[in-house]
Amino acid sequence: MIPGTFETLTVDEKVDFGYFLTDGSDRVLLHNNEVTEEIEVGEEIEVFFGVDSQDRLYATMKKPIITEGTYGWVDVVDVVDDMGAFVYIGLSKDALVTEDHLPFLREVWPNVGDKLYCTLKVSHNGKFFVRLATEEIVEPLFKDADRSIFNKEITGTVYRMIIAGSFIITEEGYKGFIHSSQRQVEPRLGETVTGRVIDVKEDGTINVSLLPRKHEALSGDAERIYAYMQERGGAMPFTDKSDPDDIKERFNLSKAAFKRAMGHLMKNDRVYQEEGWTYFKELKK
Q1: H helices of the chain, where?
Q2: Are the folds of 142-209 and 214-283 the same?
Q3: 119 within 8 A of 65, measured Cβ to Cβ
Q4: Fold for domain 6-60?
Q5: Most buried one in 135, 148, 209, 222, CB count within 10 A?
Q6: What distance in Å separates the CA atoms of residue 141 and residue 72, rounded to the nearest whole number?
Q7: If we measure between CA atoms, which residue out of 56, 166, 30, 45 comes closest to residue 110?
Q8: For residue range 187-224, what is the model confidence (pLDDT) as tens digits?
Q9: How many CB atoms are located within 10 Å of the residue 116 CB?
Q10: What is the mean pLDDT of residues 16-37?
Q11: d(CA 45, CA 12)
């Protein structure tokens, strides 16, 4: 009876708190909380072994999502600083992905609800841990993309991160890469993201952008400028002729981006410019 393995045992005795199972020489407890269907003394059942908080071996009829040597997607159920992320593996007790196996930056650790592709690892004392799948393990999951998805919206889960960007596996099974220049915020490990396919490569992988399309970005810049004007009562000392450095300092926009956003606001009849200032249109007398 080894933690992390399955074995078929015989129900030897029923007690108030569960059943004792035997392999003919040793016995192990199957607690009532670990029973998933009705069983009787003398019946043979398949169980999975673990160890409890007091390092005692126990049996369960619950089937783990992952075992040593098998991989699967598991949900993050808790994240603890200086420890790591706990994931649900189908058993009564969650398993830990230690901080050593998570990204160096805490802000891109997975959140509760994110998904990780993992396998189970059993320590020398029978404790369960979880290890993230390597690129070599994930590779067989991928299928080739074709040019028909170019510029289409696509959704995937971040399974690996490097300095240059993030790798995702999409819902369709495509391998995608999000370069650091194609995002406003770095996605978390295990996060599900939706972006746009900006390249389909010859090897069947894709490049994905999380940035808004140009017209969406323009609208976002325009709304940010409009919100700034609202804070100032509907007027600001900036126009499309303002100094580029002043624009950059105030809005973190290039002069060209600022002019495009201002043009959008004026075209939609929301603002007007006069003597070096920009005003809400409703303020015009």
Answers
A1: 135-138, 214-231, 244-251, 255-267
A2: no
A3: no
A4: OB fold (Dihydrolipoamide Acetyltransferase, E2P) (2.40.50)
A5: 222
A6: 11
A7: 166
A8: 999 999 999 999 999 999 999 999 877 666 667 788 88
A9: 24
A10: 91
A11: 11
